[in-house]
Each structure stands twice: as structure tokens, then as C-alpha cells.
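User: Hey, quick favor. My workstation is busy. Could you predict this chain's structure for me?
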Amino acid sequence: MSIAPKIDRYLQTHNLSFDTISHPPSRSSVQSAIAAQIPLSNVAKAVILKDDTDNYLMAIVPASSRLQMKQMQEITDCQLKLASEKELSQHFRDCQKGAVPPIGEAYDMDMIWDNKLSLLPDVYIEAGDHETMIHLSKEAFQHILANHPHDDLCVTPHKDKDDL
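Assistant: No problem, here it is.
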């Protein structure tokens, strides 16, 4: 499959340079980083949330961290929950299950991103399948995030049931 068509079109339309890294099949952004021998701290992932009226929000966070749901609800002033697998498959038809690229604009989805992402020298993201990562420079990734809200959305992983 390689790069999801909507992601490829977005990157081309915005004239963003990137390269791809192929890796053995994986099931998550963490496994993709390991398979591609990429530092997990340089991988950004998408967490798709929705409110009670079915408005969707893509939270973009470091794959090495966990999203704080309570913090997200305070920031957005709404009750949020994870979108279901069925909802994800409807919104991300050109992606394999579980390989959502963190570029909300390509899917007409609002985004919010974690402040830690601005510190990365370069970023790797899922391409839409389980065998390809997209490598972006800091400048290219910041272009994707520009004009979208950001905050401290994450914590270091621990076993709190309120964190994703």
C-alpha cells in the first residue's frame, strides 16, 4: 500500500519534502519504530477522539508518551472519548486499520498537538499502512502543525486508566 493517497496528495500539494522507510509489518506506531530502527521519541502518532455530538478531533502526540484524557477535556471544554475502530475505518478509508497518519487536514479533521513535538529535530509518522514510515524534517512537520492549537497533552507512560 505504501503512502495513503490522501496523505501523498497533502504532502505534494503543500510541497513538503519527505522520504519513506520500509519496515517489516507491525501493528502499532511503537512496533513500527522498533521495526524501522527509529527512536520512539521521534515518532508522532494520531489519537482520534470524538465528543457527544460526533465532532472528531485528532490529537497528535509523541509515540513515547500517553495522552491525558482529563487534560484534553479541560483544554477543549468537552467530554471526549476514543473513536471506535468502525468510525476510524470510515474516516480513514485509504489507511489500514491502526495505521492512521497524524495529518488531520488531509482528512478534514481538526487537530491539536502536544508541545513536545516542537522540540524534535525530525519526525517519523505512519504512512497509512503497517510497513511504511514517512520521515519529515522539523520544518516540514511544523508546517503541518502550523495554525493548529497545541498544549501539554501527554505524560510519561504509566498504568493510569485515564491515559491513552
